[in-house]
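INTERNAL TRANSFER SHEET
From: sequence group
To: structure group
Subject: Pre-mRNA-splicing factor 38

Please process the attached sequence and return the structure record in the designated field. Keep the field labels unchanged so the import script can parse them.
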Amino acid sequence: MKNSKYVRALGAFYMRLTGSSVDCYKYLEPLLADSRKLRRQNRDGQFELIHVDEFIDSLLRDERVCDVILPRIQSRHVLEENNELEPKVSILEEDIEEGVESSDEEEPTEKRREKEHRSKHSPAKEKRRDREREKRNRDRDRRDRDRSDRRDRDRHRRSRSHDRERSKRHRSRSPYRK
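Return from structure group:
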């Protein structure tokens, strides 16, 4: 119970609602390394699985989370330029640097091939790729759904205005009009 994922998510949500921009990035970004799963209820009442890091990412990027409009925070690069935050170091940069260092050293080709195979097929990287793929699919589905909703809303507005115009014309021809 000490490190409950739901308590952590609730605390992160509270920090995002009440904290300053600097505090939000300072305290929430380390939680991006947490890959535990959460069950979240969507608008349709269905439960879906998300990861803690996805929830934290949505807190830092989205305007609305859990049907609550969040206060605006300054973007990270603005805070970095004002020296309020340290520049973010990407985990990928470390991997790239390690790749450059290892290529400088002379390795037998068989060992190099085996190492490349392990790095391409490591469970952690596959899990990360799967999560990124799922996130892209969800984002695409959300965009398509939003586009469809906008289209339906516009179509509904046009039909209502058309009905009003037709009703005005009909009333103007009415013989009972005074």
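Handover comment: Residues 123-172 form the longest helix (50 residues). The chain has a mean pLDDT of 78.
Transfer complete.
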